[in-house]
């Protein structure tokens, strides 16, 4: 029998009394090849993973088949007449979710390859995966927002509560007909997080009434000692995105525990604070918040610093413009706006018991910039040593350019003397807490 395979740069032939096939080791071709040929001759072709007489293939595919394959043999009887069929280069093993009735694969029955179809190359498609640790209100808001914005192909959920974990997973899976396609998986075992691009950590202890920030951080450090090494074990090339509070200190903890370079450990920081800041000004100016630009930097908390000197509306520096027009902006007014930003989360918690949607959208914006290499600038918690006179190895928020490799660079934004002093004071407060941590 003569088998011909025609490629873009020539052809080669196999001369043998048996049908010979180069395939992936996973292909169960010994029996399938002969059976498929028989079915094809009867007009009942159902198995795409077959050898064939003549089909156009790219030279790279031919080489891949030779390089990765094993030789499988199946005795062929009768004549072969097939001008088009498909070879499953990656694997012909059926997916565990494939539907079978009476031994027939329904997927293969319902979907037939088009004429002259080339083999699918699954290795060429990059699958993006995001892990969310902690399925509380914040964690699920992050997961839901990432899914609705179609930012990841797979979402892995991890929590210590198996029942809640499964319930949240099913609740999202049941909405599949209304959402962009995403594979949603969940487990208490961190093995489910393997090969994640981004690992979002929202798990942690809540602050008790009267509890100091240091005590809260210390309690969360014990959680992080269990979480971070597991994430690193299964996704050594991932970017860690920390949302658990106090976010700046815990981002520092995650950096130390992970051993990752600092550009791959990021805290959500003041990304949400800055959104609240822009919304408050936009409301008063009656413009869209997208056209109001300004940053809150420093600690995500009481010592945060609003950068009034760089606030602009539609490209117009607001404070300078008002001063040029002879309009004096009272310092008390600016401080009140900043106080509203700082107290914003407390107000929401007082009214509904927790915050969720705003931080979910904030996290999704960071994931989008990172996964899609957007190069957008976000005020996030980064290792700030060496910036604006900060000498301590401390994490706090600065405007950072984010892309596929994590933090690409820190924006050299000019600060006034007062803003610099406040930022340095914020750094010292955080450094004092970090020095007392057991890591």
List keywords for this structure.
single chain; 439 residues; alpha/beta; L-2-Hydroxyisocaproate Dehydrogenase, Chain A, domain 2; 2 domains; six-stranded parallel beta sheet; three-stranded mixed beta sheet; 21 strands; NAD; L-lactate/malate_DH; L-lactate_DH_AS; L-lactate dehydrogenase; Lactate/malate_DH_N
Can you walk through the features of this model?
It catalyses: (S)-lactate + NAD(+) = pyruvate + NADH + H(+). Residues 129-267 form the Lactate/malate dehydrogenase N-terminal domain. Pathway: Fermentation; pyruvate fermentation to lactate; (S)-lactate from pyruvate: step 1/1. Belongs to the LDH/MDH superfamily. LDH family. The chain is α/β, with parallel strands linked by helices. It has two domains: 2-124, no CATH class; 129-439, Lactate dehydrogenase/glycoside hydrolase, family 4, C-terminal (L-2-Hydroxyisocaproate Dehydrogenase, Chain A, domain 2, Alpha-Beta Complex), CATH 3.90.110. It has helices spanning 29-41, 59-68, 106-110, 137-148, 162-173, 213-234, 247-258, 271-285, 318-324, 331-352, 357-371, 417-435; strands at residues 2-7, 10-15, 19-23, 56-57, 70-74, 100-101, 104-105, 129-133, 154-158, 183-187, 198-201, 239-242, 265-267, 292-293, 296-297, 305-306, 312-313, 316-317, 376-383, 395-403, 406-410. The strands form seven sheets. The protein has a six-stranded parallel β-sheet, with helices on both faces. A three-stranded mixed β-sheet has the order 2-1-4. Helix 4 links the parallel strand 8 and strand 9 (154-158). Helix 4 (137-148) packs across helix 11, helix 6 (213-234) packs parallel to helix 7 (247-258) and helix 7 packs across helix 12 (417-435). The longest helix has 22 residues, at 213-234. It is globular, with a radius of gyration of 29 Å. The model is unreliable at 1-34 and 39-96 (pLDDT under 50).
């Amino acid at each position: 029998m003569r088998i011909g395979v025609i490629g873009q740069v020539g052809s080669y032939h196999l001369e043998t009394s048996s049908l010979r096939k180069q395939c992936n080791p996973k292909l169960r071709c010994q029996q399938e090849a002969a059976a498929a040929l028989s079915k094809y001759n009867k007009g009942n072709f159902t198995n795409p993973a077959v050898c064939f007489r003549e089909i156009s293939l790219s030279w790279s595919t031919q080489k891949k088949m030779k390089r990765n394959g094993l030789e499988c043999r199946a005795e062929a009887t009768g004549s072969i007449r097939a001008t088009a069929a498909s070879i499953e280069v990656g694997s012909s093993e059926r997916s565990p979710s494939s539907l079978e009735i009476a031994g027939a694969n329904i997927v293969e029955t319902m979907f037939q390859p088009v004429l002259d179809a080339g083999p699918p190359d699954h290795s060429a498609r990059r699958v993006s995966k995001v892990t969310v640790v902690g399925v509380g209100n914040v964690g699920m808001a992050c997961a839901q927002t990432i899914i609705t914005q179609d930012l990841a192909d797979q979402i892995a959920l991890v929590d210590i509560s198996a029942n809640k974990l499964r319930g949240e997973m099913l609740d999202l899976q049941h909405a599949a007909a209304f959402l962009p396609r995403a594979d949603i998986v969940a487990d208490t075992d961190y093995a489910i997080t393997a090969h994640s691009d981004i690992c979002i950590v929202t798990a942690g202890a809540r602050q008790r009434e009267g509890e100091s920030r240091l005590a809260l951080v210390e309690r969360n450090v014990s959680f992080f000692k269990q979480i971070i090494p597991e994430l690193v074990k299964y996704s050594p090339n991932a970017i860690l995105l920390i949302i658990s509070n106090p976010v700046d200190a815990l981002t520092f903890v995650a950096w130390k525990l992970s051993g990752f370079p600092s550009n791959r450990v990021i805290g959500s920081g003041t990304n949400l604070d800055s959104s609240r800041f822009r919304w408050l000004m936009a409301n008063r100016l009656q413009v869209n918040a997208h056209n109001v630009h300004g940053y809150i930097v420093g600690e995500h908390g009481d010592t945060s610093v609003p950068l009034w000197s760089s606030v602009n509306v539609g490209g117009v520096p607001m404070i300078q413009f008002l001063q040029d027009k002879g309009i004096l902006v009272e310092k008390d007014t600016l401080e009140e706006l900043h106080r509203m930003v700082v107290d914003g989360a407390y107000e929401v918690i007082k009214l509904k018991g927790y915050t969720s949607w705003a931080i979910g959208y904030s996290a999704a914006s960071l994931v989008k910039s990172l996964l899609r290499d957007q190069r957008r600038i976000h005020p996030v918690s980064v290792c700030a040593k060496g910036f604006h006179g900060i000498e301590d190895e401390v994490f706090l928020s600065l405007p950072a350019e984010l892309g596929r490799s994590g933090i690409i660079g820190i924006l050299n934004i000019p600060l006034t003397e007062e803003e610099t002093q406040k930022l340095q004071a914020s750094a010292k407060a955080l450094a004092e807490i970090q020095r007392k941590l057991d890591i």
